[in-house]
Amino acid sequence: MKGIVKSYQMGDEVQVVLKGIDFCVRRGEFLSILGPSGSGKSTMMNIIGCLDTPNEGEFFLSGRRIADLDDKELARIRSREIGFVFQQFQLLPRLTALHNVELPLIYSGMKPAKRHKRALMLLEKVGLADKTINRPNQLSGGQQQRVAIARALANNPTILLADEPTGALDQTTGRQVIELFKELHAEGHTIIMITHNEQIAKEASRIVHILDGNLSEGIV
Question: What is the pTM of this model?
């Protein structure tokens, strides 16, 4: 990111949320973006995830200038290159854990036998090999988040983008999810975690702090 500015029109006033962000994430990093509510971290996450566009500045992902891409190319990046993990899991309640993980593979056109095998492998990877036929309401919060992480990994994304991934979990379960992130990082995955929790942020290998739309390195 180079000189990223994001503002919104609020009636007669313009609210500037991001104020000239310069930011770089290297492949294989585990990074925390730490900031309180209203600091601009969600807006920054939306731009990283190609869900929103800046008013000014340039954003490059894997060497490509995002502003040069059309809607179809952006949709492909969101589905293939960025794995999203949300605070509230966002699992489909009528689908089993296995089918929730398979869903992105269906959209990417993977054949049934191959996607079934990959979904099983990912559920085993997150410690849920015995929960494949369970629906979300039959799983604990921590197990649901593990299913969500497996789903996010389905298309082998360039970036795992996690928005308050422990926010809906108790401390012990949240710790288990963070340990899973650390294992994934050790395997070479690039992880960007947005959080307001200082202790959770410290689990990453690098921290940037966002406050009032400005970014600072390593402030906790």
Answer: 0.90
- Nearest CA to 200 among 172, 174, 170, 218? 174
Q: What gap in Å lies between CA 195 and CA 193, rounded to an integer?
A: 6
Angle at 164 between CA 75 and CA 61, to 5 degrees: 35
State pLDDT tens for residues 82-120.
999 988 899 999 999 999 999 999 988 899 999 999 999
Question: SS3 string of 186-203?
Answer: HCCCEEEEEECCHHHHCC
Structure tokens at 134: 């369970």
User: Rounded distance, CA 16 to CA 195, Å?
Assistant: 21
- H-only helix segments in 87-190: 97-107, 112-125, 141-152, 171-186
Question: 31 - beta bridge partners?
Answer: 192, 206
> Is the Cβ–Cβ distance between 49 and 161 less than 8 Å?
yes
List, edge to edge, every strand of the sheet that includes 13-21.
13-21, 2-10, 56-58
* Angle made by CA atoms 33, 37, 39, in degrees to the nearest 5: 60
